[in-house]
Amino acid sequence: xxxxxxxxxxxxxxxxxxxxxSYQTEKTYIYWIRRYILFHNKRxxxxxxxxxxxxxxxxxAVNENVAASTQNQALHAVxxxxxxxxxxxxxxxxxxxxxxxxxxxxxxxTKEEVLLIIQKLSGVHQLLVRLLYGTGLRLNExxxxxxxxxxxxxxxxxxxxxxxxxxxxxxxxxxIAEELKIHLQSVKIIHNQDLEKGYGSVxxxxxxxxxxxxxxxDWIWQFVFxxxxxxxxPRSSEVRRHHLHESSLQKALKxxxxxxxxxxxxGCHTFRHSFATHLLQNGYDIRTVQELxxxxxxxxxxxxxHVLNRGGRGVRSPLxx
Length: 321
Fold this sequence. Notes:
CATH superfamily of the largest domain: Intergrase catalytic core
Family: Belongs to the 'phage' integrase family.
Keywords: DNA integration, DNA recombination, DNA-binding
GO biological process, one term: DNA integration
Oligomer: single chain
Order of helices and strands: HHHHHHHEEEHHEEHHHHH
Protein name: Integrase
InterPro entries: CB, DNA_brk_join_enz, Integrase-like_cat_sf, Integrase_catalytic, Integrase_integron-type, Integrase_recombinase_N, Integrase_SAM-like_N, Tyrosine_recombinase_XerCD
Number of helices: 14
Strand order of the largest sheet: 1-2-3
């Protein structure tokens, strides 16, 4: 039986997986490409070009009032379609109305506020927040940690880039090292139980699963923060245990902030902001902080120097005696 030609979005999916992009990137790109096609009444992208991209981006900025980062995300998705899937060169001078970049300073907690929130958490959620604040990891970086990434002997954590291009090393806080070891003991028990039931595999990046057939069952490749249940992998359809879902911590954190009575907008990323700011307050060099955060450009890290000066800190008000 002759196989039907793949639909455009299926082709997009294939190319994304060939390039080892994350599942989140896959969902995001397909979402924006579908939006682009529907906006132009289901015309095929090969029959469109820069004017249609401009119209779509302008619509997002003017009619939907999206943030600049959201508009850029849509642009990257559509350009990926043309460049990587359709192999079609475009005039990249896209003259769309661009969404205005917001100029805001990140929310930063005091150390006392951080500790107060941590006290309102328990179990794996408390350990995760302590890890976020103690290392400066992004939430997805913490959730994607594998057993082999934690080096207790050297007191360090290796953070792998989702696309596999770069890695960096950050410290393992001594104050959570023993608790993390105990946590991993309980995780290993769960892994052994999964193996006994015929499961126990984990997703491996960059085609390692094909190269090392049994590696997906190895302890060192298991997630440090596994999900409480096994589920079907959306890519391979294999039933396995993935890492803890981000919404689990987000919900617990929201409740803890409310219980702590802190009147700030606090998310998981707030602890990364607080980590960087507190290091600078303690006199660490900005290049060191940049390296720990994994920023490619020091200008990104420089925002925390502005946070230090927020509210005229260091300048005495003329109202005060």
